[in-house]
Amino acid sequence: MTRARAARLTAALCGLLASLLLAELGLRLVIPALSPSGRIAQTVGRAVELLPLTYDQGAIDRIALGQAYITFDPDLGWVSTPGVDRIGIGNQGREVHYRHNRAGQRADRDYAPTPSLGVRRIAAYGDSFTYCETVDMSDCWTRQLEDLLPNSEALNFGVPAYGPDQAWLRYQRGGAAWHPCAVLIGYLTENVNRAINRFRPFYYPAPDTFPLAKPRYIIEGNHLELLTSPARRPDDLKDPAWVEANLGPHDFWYFPGMFAIQPLDWLDVARLLRTAHYRFEDAAAHRQAGQWTPSWARQIYRPGTEGFDVTARVLVDFADRAAAGWRAQAPRRAAGAAPPAAYPDDRPDRLARRAGGP
Q: If DSSP codes are grouped into helix, strand and coil, which group holds residue 125?
């Protein structure tokens, strides 16, 4: 290398370092940190959270100690805490009385393992809409269904934030042993996104998100293969680096370094550039996810996309398994009993159909 070329290379490197230094200095002077951790920067009057993000680790302790209406489960991710009787704040800001029976069902009474002869027992599985997270038990649809149908019981196995895969796994854990003559599978249009998620904050990084892991299915050849959650105890989830290494693979919503500190994060400019990349990727992934329009449905509910293919197989296999259990109950079925059915349980679905969507 000639002396002149070496000098030009040195000058270029010095210029690059000087530019980075000035950018770093500018960020630290012009964009003051709003929190002790320096994670929040103020830009043009708008707060922007820089990577790495955080999740509520205190919630992990509360869940592990049984101080929440859900509890950690190594196989399902989480389940409704048995025997809960507490007042909480629903997602609409009003007080809600949460009561679970000893089996962890949303109910204010226990049910016998086997229904009395002539009693129609219905079992409902799904997410927070099935669970009735925003209302007291007296206003829950399963209670109202039970009141409307003579000689009937409606068991509510719904769990907040569940995906269809978790609902199916919960049924596999012993749903047939409750001897339902009908199984209702609650399904929210948005649930297609949960079927390709393994750590909920990857998909929904909000302060009130359950910081828990879940199993998910992938399609191998012509069948579903279960990816179990590697988190066998709640404390596993307190280490963001462990979470990303073990739950990032096969999570559609995962972005590297979303929660784990990276080597160059001591530089604000590196964090800003990384955050800009994440926000661009996140916006592209979520661009249609919350718009609840016919165009969103056509984009997401398309054969060949991972979310659609996995969700469709999960729901079909769930219905087939439940139907097999229904047929096995033939000697005990009451008159009028029906096979399993999936029901849409969200208002946006209906609004989309009114607008001419699917």
A: strand
**Which residues contact residue 81 at a Cβ distance below 8 angstroms, ignoring those fewer than 6 apart?**
66, 68, 69, 70, 71, 100, 104
Per-residue confidence at 66, pLDDT binned at 50, 70, 90?
Answer: confident
Confidence of residue 197 (pLDDT cuts 50, 70, 90): very high
Residue 38 pLDDT: 45
DSSP code string of 29-54: HHS-BSSTTS-EEEETTEEEEPSSP-
Element holding 216 (H helix, E strand): strand 216-220
C-alpha dist (Å) from residue 8 to 5, 19, 21: 5, 16, 20
**Residue 122, beta-bridge partner list:** 154, 182
What one-character-per-residue DSSP string does 49-86 give?
EPSSP---HHHHHHHHTT-SSEEEETTTEEEEPTT-EE
Q: What is the pLDDT of residue 89?
A: 78
Q: Which amino acid is at 36?
A: P
Where do the H-state alpha helices sit in the chain?
Answer: 3-30, 57-64, 128-131, 141-148, 164-172, 191-194, 200-203, 240-247, 268-286, 294-300, 306-328, 347-354
The DSSP symbol for 152 reads E
CB count within 10 Å of CB 144 equals: 13
Instruction: Please give the C-alpha separations between residue 229 and each of 213, 280, 282, in angstroms, as whole numbers.
Output: 6, 28, 24
Walk across the sheet containing 152-156 and list its strands.
152-156, 120-125, 182-187, 341-344
pLDDT tens for residues 292-350? 667 777 788 899 999 999 999 999 999 999 988 767 666 555 444 555 555 555 443 44
Smallest CA-to-CA distance from 143 within 191, 89, 97 is with 97
